[in-house]
Write a structure and sequence with these properties.
single chain; 303 residues; 2 strands; two-stranded antiparallel ribbon; 13 helices
């Protein structure tokens, strides 16, 4: 019981912080172009992370650089997609990431997935289709939805690729990852540079840099120290649900039955796909699929 209470000491603020990052990021786009906004976000988050690292020296190697490139591409698609969809739609479509992780793992890493995992993935994609059909009538654009789903694909790629860096110091690796992303966005920011520095913009920037960037890292780590990975991952699915609730309260518009049905099917598919089930090997024996704690650590964060 005490352990469960300790888990929710981390889980409740994590879900709140991660859910609010979508409306804060959406609002920030009113004051700055996407490239400049993300450049500032990542550079600030990197500095904050290195304050808690063992060394201020970035860890530059092939694996860390490639992982950072996947992160930057995911973020690029996410922030441009967010210009064209609502915060709730962005959260729901972004959190389809686990559905893409399973086929990518099978193809890239040649890892076996249980039939239950594949069934959950297929069910999840059915939910994505149902949810996608409802977007046209909500003001969202097809391009925005496609960009956001593309973000989920690259999010899955970088999450899986993190396994190659799991033996490195986590804080230094994340700090380096954030620094590289910030540098890449800063390199191209002059092309579209546009910033209106207001108190509202500084609030938006501070939130997505410090809270949804740096603080979420600490809270997610704390959750993993308190509970099994599977349960912690399931808790993370509350983020898009809460983002949808926040948007409903703000706008006063209730999601339609088809929208809620699509979201429900997506979450059910993700939940089924994360259930551990025996996987039969080529020799006929059974092995238990164990989630990778380090990979799952990063799967809880929107890049």
């Amino acid at each position: 019981m005490a352990r469960s209470r300790r888990l929710y000491v981390y889980a409740i603020p994590y879900v709140i912080i991660a859910s609010l990052q979508y409306p804060f990021a959406k609002d920030g786009l009113r004051y700055a172009d996407p490239l400049t906004f993300m450049a500032a976000r990542y550079l600030i988050a990197s500095f904050a992370t290195f304050l808690f690292a063992r060394s201020f020296r970035p860890r530059l190697n092939r694996d860390t650089v490639l992982m950072s490139l996947f992160t930057a591409m995911s973020t690029l698609l996410w922030i441009y997609g967010l210009q064209r969809v609502s915060p709730a739609q962005s959260a729901v479509l972004s959190f389809t990431m686990p559905l893409f992780a399973i086929p990518i793992t099978a193809v890239v890493l040649d890892e076996r997935t249980s039939r239950l995992g594949w069934a959950g993935t297929l069910l999840g994609f059915v939910g994505v289709t149902v949810y996608g059909l409802t977007l046209a009538g909500s003001g969202a654009t097809l391009l925005g939805a496609l960009l956001t789903v593309g973000n989920a694909v690259f999010w899955a790629c970088y999450t899986l690729y993190y396994r190659k860096t799991r033996n490195q110091d986590a804080v230094t690796t994340v700090g380096t990852q954030l620094l590289i992303c910030g540098a890449l966005f800063a390199l191209f920011a002059p092309v579209t540079f546009a910033v209106n520095v207001t108190p509202e913009f500084l609030l938006d920037l501070g939130y997505i840099s410090i809270f949804s960037g740096f603080a979420s890292f600490l809270l997610w780590s704390g959750m993993l120290r308190q509970e099994k990975v599977g349960r912690v991952t399931t808790i993370a699915f509350a983020v898009p649900a809460m983002t949808t609730l926040i948007e409903t309260i703000e706008t006063g518009v209730l999601p339609g039955p088809a929208t809620l049905g699509g979201i429900g099917i997506i979450f059910l598919g993700i939940y089924i796909s994360t259930i551990r089930a025996p996987i039969r090997t080529k020799m006929g024996s059974e092995m238990r699929a164990e989630p990778d704690p380090e990979a799952t650590f990063h799967s809880g964060h929107q890049p």
